[in-house]
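Consider the following assembly input.
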Amino acid sequence: MDMLAGKVKTTQQTVNTAMNPTDALERPIRLTAQDVTVHYGAKQALHGISIDIPDRAVTSFIGPSGCGKSTFLRCINRMNDTIEGAKVGGTIKLDGEDIYAADLDVVELRARIGMVFQKPNPFPKSIYDNVAYGPRIHGLARSKSDLDEIVVSSLRKAGLFEEVKDRLNEPGTGLSGGQQQRLCIARAIAVGPEVILMDEPCSALDPIATAIIEELVDELRENYTIVIVTHSMQQAARVSQRTAFFHLGNLIEQGNTEDIFTNPVNKQTQDYIMGRIG
Amino acid sequence: MNTLIVAALLLVLLGLAYQLGWSKSRNLATANGARVHSRSQYHGSLAVLWTMLPALLVLAVWAFFSPGVQHWYAVSQIPTDILTSLNQTQLNQQLQRLNDLASGYGVTGELQPFEQAAGENIGRFQLLSFLIMLAAAAGLGVLGLMLAQRRITPRLRARTEVERAISLLLIACSAVAILTTVGIVASLVTEALRFFSFINPLDFFFGTVWAPRFSSTGAGDAGQYGLLPLLTGTLMISGIAMLVAVPVGLMAAIYLNQYAHRSVRAVVKPIIEILAGIPTIVYGFFALVTVGPFLRDFGNAIGLSISATSALTAGLVMGVMIIPFISSLSDDILNQVPRSLRDGAYGLGATQSETIRNVLLPAALPGIVGAFLLAVSRAIGETMIVVLAAGNAPILRGNPLEPVSTITVSIVNQLTGDTDFTGPQSLVAFALGLTLFIMTLCLNVVALYIVRRFREQYE
């Protein structure tokens, strides 16, 4: 465990010193979306979204409320399946495999693509059971000690272990908002996903808790492909290497975060970043 | 006729009051530049209140005292020598004759000499007292209206006063419900205490034999009033009913809430709720005519002796009756579980049934327990199904395939036919009712407590 903590620390140093944001484009592409559309009943929420998401980097979706960024995020792990009347068109491929293919098992997909939601939503169970839930349903642990190890290491990766190690059996709903959100991140990590989707993970948190989560996202990038939806442009600028700007269900512009924020090509992107729309 | 006149008069008066209050405050607003506190509608409404309340007060006083006064006057019209010769029943008949004469309805038989005059006098007296009442009500109403008119100034807080009057009205309405409950409990308790003056409470609550005798059939002996046979019957039937209703109702709710497509739900949910609208007496004869004989034949076929009327028959049908109750309550509770919890489970790759079993049901459990307890208290209090289908055999036994009896059935039996509330034979109904009331009250209190705690958790 100490080794792990040491590793996390090193990662952080690498991030802050060596990692150049423009490197992101040179990483291999994990996720590819081609002409994705979403209809809620008669209303079209997304109009032909095409985007590539690089491996082990943070991609952020920004845009005004109702622009479709969360809707698109929920397409990536097929959470829109659970919404009655939602219809998704186009293709999304994870490592070249179509995730909307008829023979794809949604349960397996969601084990590979984890998700963290806008509002912290721990189950009304103990902290331990919250993290152990995913490994249990997927049968990832062969013994109790296996499970213990998964829970502890997930909590460590989410930066929560030191705060809760003495009360793993207390309800997860009793934690503070920021801790609950980190618990949800630990819960997602415990399943061993390759991609983590975050839907405005800090919108219900205070600035200090937000800073902790942002730092965590930066650390997690080392091992996971992260897609984060945010309405805070500062957050996008701080944590992501790639940024995509959505407006009224269209993907207006995408590129390296630095370029989007310093030198946007599109007029609408510029207006949004300057605070003129949204 | 009289009532119509009163109502019409009152309405005219109220309309007038509203108009006067409205126009006076209207003039205030236009005449001088002062700011008027309340809008004209409130001034009008306040005038209505000031008119209506004194008039209603007079009406209430009249309604309370007039029967006594009328009775006293009618009795005074009967000559003393005749009056002394009448017993209570005859007096009532005599008064009825006089009233019929007074109202011009007419009577059969020969008129005694005093009756004609007495009838006319009573008629005159009734008319006079009615007119006095009407005049008093109208007079006080007008007086109130004048007072209200004089009170109207720009700074009169008519809106505040009207709002307060409305909130008082609302409080009074809810007080009606509470007072009714208190009254029912009080009457139950006093009558039950009378019963316990005949029968030792220990013999009642712990007696194992239920054999009440009617005073007409046996002399002296009051019979035995042991509650236990009835209690076991009640609990057995309720238990069977819950065994049917809870799994079926809960699973129906889960299906409708989680699996059913919107168009299916739109059809199925109303149909399930139609079950709740069927009168229980209909369930009763459904049990008696269809389910009972079917169970008996089925029992014969597999070598079991099942009575056509038995705890099983009544319990099964009662369970069906309670299904919609359980399913619609559970459906509401499942809807209250936040969507984010479900999303959380799906996001981890849980299947639909895993999500329901591990996340949805545990989160909804307290509410479902509350619904369960409410359903039990309904089952315990249910009457018509058991009257028809349980077999009415108040014998202490544990076999659900044989006839039993319940507390509610025994209440019906003890109060049907000729009853005088002097002996334990009828009074026992109140002791039984009180027992039933306390049982359901406890269940409801526990259930509401659980449901409320559950709500707090998620709001």
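Chain B touches chain A through 21 residues (CB under 8 Å). Ask yourself how this observation constrains the way the partners meet.
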